């Protein structure tokens, strides 16, 4: 075989498949976040307890890095904690990988997939990648969802109903009664109800009890939010053994890292890590809600660790987001969706952090009110 010299220009590489070509995604953030308080990605914004970090460090050895990881022990401990058989659980690198596995296993070109709109961004992205027949069900201006319309959308031939619950970015949650109805409708039509419970730690609403009564339900969870392990990428899927087997068949080899497995095991053994942080977030939410009302800002109801703030008509979300950035805080906004128009989204945290953020928001509002307006 002759070696290649110089640049070859004959022909072109293959084009990506249509589903991938249709997707446009932003690159992951980098150094532009340095020195800023990130209240835009719904991460844990308080340190993990010192004892937790010390215990995790004590579990890490040379073998942790040099031997391929096995999630079996974590799976079995999760099974005990959830009172589920081990064969009903699959450990995944967060809910993102579980969502991808659901699409790989159950979605082909034209498959009907019902979802909320807006919802977690990767749900429609995976739908486009795999050529799904996307069926969004939207919220009104008051962030109310017509559950009757959602049930009606689950027609015979629907493959998946994917619901983030609590939903992001709306912060809304469907209660147990609605989940029961949805599970029944999916059983009637042969669909799979996929509940992305990434924010379950803050809402405590869950579809896990449905698993004992229906093979048409799968629950996805992550250790990234309430547990605060976003950097370690650990989660799991829970469902019938047949569904979990299908998801396991499309997983990557050794996809969950060993450090993440040990950290997740520590959280399962010490649920107070989650409970204590949820209490802090709830206290911080009350502080922020009270403070923003004095600015004529409307805090929208939330069942997650973020708060949507509907700004008064005189305040531009773009200007507020930029003003907060100048003062050291990153928040999310503006939003294109009508139900979140005129809003910004803030990750919640402990009361002292929320108080400092409220000070910054007040300063931004004062600056905007003092700024001269352009003459007509």
Itemize the secondary structure elements and their pairings.
Blueprint: H1 18-21, E1 37-38, H2 50-59, H3 62-66, H4 72-82, E2 89-92, H5 94-106, E3 112-117, H6 122-129, E4 133-138, H7 147-153, E5 158-164, H8 176-189, E6 192-196, H9 200-203, E7 217-222, E8 235-239, H10 241-249, H11 258-269, H12 272-293, E9 298-299, E10 306-310, H13 317-326, E11 329-330, E12 343-347, H14 351-370
Parallel strand pairs: 1-11, 3-4, 3-5, 5-6, 6-7
Antiparallel strand pairs: 2-8, 7-8, 9-10, 10-12
Short summary:
The protein is an alpha/beta fold. 40% of the residues lie in helices and 15% in strands. The chain has two domains: 33-45 and 273-370, Aspartate Aminotransferase, domain 1 (Alpha-Beta Complex); 68-270, Aspartate Aminotransferase, domain 2 (3-Layer(aba) Sandwich).
Shape: globular
Characterize the main sheet. Answer: 7 strands, mixed
Helix content: 25-40%
Number of domains: 2
Per the CATH scheme, the topology name of the largest domain is Aspartate Aminotransferase, domain 2
CATH class of the largest domain: Alpha Beta
| CATH architecture identity of the largest domain | 3-Layer(aba) Sandwich
In percent, how much strand structure appears in the residues? 5-15%
Number of helices: 14
What's the gyration radius in Å? 22 Å
Total beta-strand segments: 12
Structural class from helices and strands?
Answer: alpha/beta
Unreliable segments of 5+ consecutive residues = none
User: Distance N terminus to C terminus?
Assistant: 73 Å
Mean pLDDT score, rounded? 94
Can you list the strand order of the major beta sheet? 2-8-7-6-5-3-4
The CATH fourth-level homologous superfamily of the largest domain: Type I PLP-dependent aspartate aminotransferase-like (Major domain)
């Amino acid at each position: 075989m002759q070696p290649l010299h110089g640049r070859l220009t004959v022909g072109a590489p293959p084009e990506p498949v249509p589903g991938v070509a249709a997707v446009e995604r932003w690159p992951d953030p980098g150094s532009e976040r340095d020195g800023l308080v990130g209240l835009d990605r719904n991460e844990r914004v308080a340190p993990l307890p010192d004892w937790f970090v010390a215990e995790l460090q004590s579990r890490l050895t040379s073998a942790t890095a040099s031997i391929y990881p096995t999630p079996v022990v974590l799976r079995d401990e999760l099974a005990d904690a959830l009172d589920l058989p081990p064969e009903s659980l699959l450990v995944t690198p967060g809910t993102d990988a579980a969502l991808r596995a659901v699409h790989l296993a159950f979605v082909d070109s034209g498959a009907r997939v019902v979802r909320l709109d807006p919802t977690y961004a990767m749900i429609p992205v995976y739908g486009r990648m795999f050529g799904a027949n996307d069926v969004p069900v939207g919220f009104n201006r008051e962030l109310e969802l017509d559950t009757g319309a959602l049930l009606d959308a689950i027609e015979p031939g629907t493959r998946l109903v994917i619901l983030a619950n609590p939903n992001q970015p709306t912060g809304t949650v469907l209660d147990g009664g609605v989940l029961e109805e949805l599970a029944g409708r999916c059983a009637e039509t042969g669909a799979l109800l996929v509940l992305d419970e990434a924010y379950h730690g803050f809402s405590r609403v869950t579809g896990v009890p449905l698993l004992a009564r229906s093979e048409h339900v799968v629950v996805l969870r992550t250790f990234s939010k309430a547990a605060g392990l976003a950097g370690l990428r650990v989660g799991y899927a829970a469902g019938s053994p047949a569904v979990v087997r299908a998801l396991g068949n499309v997983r990557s080899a050794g996809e969950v890292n060993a450090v993440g497995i040990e950290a997740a095991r520590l959280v399962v053994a010490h649920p107070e890590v989650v409970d204590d942080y949820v209490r802090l977030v709830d206290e911080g939410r009350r502080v922020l809600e009270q403070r923003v009302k004095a600015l004529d800002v409307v805090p929208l109801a939330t069942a997650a660790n973020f708060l949507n703030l509907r700004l008064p008509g005189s305040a531009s979300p773009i200007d507020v987001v930029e003003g907060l950035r100048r003062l050291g805080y990153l928040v999310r906004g503006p939003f294109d969706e009508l139900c979140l128009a005129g809003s910004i989204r803030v990750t919640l945290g402990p009361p002292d952090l929320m108080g400092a953020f409220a000070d910054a928001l007040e300063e931004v509002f004062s600056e905007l009110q003092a700024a001269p307006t352009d003459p007509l």
